[in-house]
Amino acid sequence: MYKHLYSHFLNARPQLLHCAPHSHYYWPDVTRSAQLAYWDDSARHADEKWNLIFSEKVPALQGYIAQELHLPDPQQIVFAQNTHELLYRVLTTFPANKPLRILTTDGEFHSFNRQTRRLEERGNVEVIRVPCEPFETLQTRWQEAIASEANLDMIFISQVFYNSGVQAPQVQTWIDAVPANTLVMIDGYHGYGAIESNLAAVADRIFYLAGGYKYAQAGEGVCFMAVPKGCEFRPEFTGWFADFAGLSKAQQGPIQYASDGMRFAGATMDFSAIYRQLAVFEMWQQQGLTTAQRDHYIRDLQAAFLKHIDSCDHAEVNRNNLLQCEALGHGHFFTFRLSDAKTVANIAAQLRENGIATDFRNDRLRFGFALYHNPEDYQQIRFA
Ligand SMILES: Cc1ncc(COP(=O)(O)O)c(C=O)c1O
User: What is the SS3 assignment for 30?
Assistant: First the structure.
């Protein structure tokens, strides 16, 4: 139904049903001219292009993202090439020589998981990881952990878990139990652009991370963080973008920071992805593709996919092995946990030979759903 919006990627990879948009979404055609517009603006304005970018492009994108997430203050949104950079910048607001206690889950993406495991090697960092499974009791166990763990400096949890597709306990349901001096960060990468997220009630309390590579369809390089208003943290990992207003002053004395989200900015970056992301928001607007409508379309695709999977009657890829939790809900991809990693790799290879691109991690096979699918496309999925 929406394939015509993605003709460049679809034509470049004919005969392939791309079921890995949760990893890397195809870019809609409008992003191609946006990419060229960035080039043209660079030629037209050269070193003066930063004016255009910071006075027009960045505020426009902040506005769209704020609208998408119901954030009241668009200027609290700061951009970076990836979310890891922003996460690390926040981690450096805690002094390295003081103990640090973080509450999280065992289902967080590699950037966070690797980084915190490395920090634990310091010896003064403690990370408490609540197991995601069983999902049915996660909401209760998570709330119990918040109530029982004292002196937490930081809480970090996904919006939707990358290794299952299951939604995490929603921040609105547990934030009131968190002491005011505990930093709360949500990894919203699998929520942003996919499911409806209303952060209005928590905007002044939480840090929210996400990026354009997945459901926002803009490719790499346009990640962002929403920073609570009035935040006075002083990241040690800081670049010159974090205090534009102060650059013309004498550079001495304590380091100053912008009073909005820019205090967590870094330094020179490639802004072409910001052009692409703007083009995607404009396309959604022109097509009347609200978040609710996109989500609704994906839910229909998921139903069609499961119907087909049922009819395949496969020994491994079936509903018994589907990771799911009705109470918590799902994001825009499904994960099957099979008997072992080798089986998963073999099935993924076989599917790929049959023209179906999936992705897999260890013993988990993931299928994602995109606007550039039609419900009948899943009939192409064969396991032999
Ligand atoms: C939950 C989640 N967070 C973050 C990322 C991306 O991390 P980064 O921006 O550090 O590359 C991914 C990518 O797959 C992810 O699944």
Answer: helix
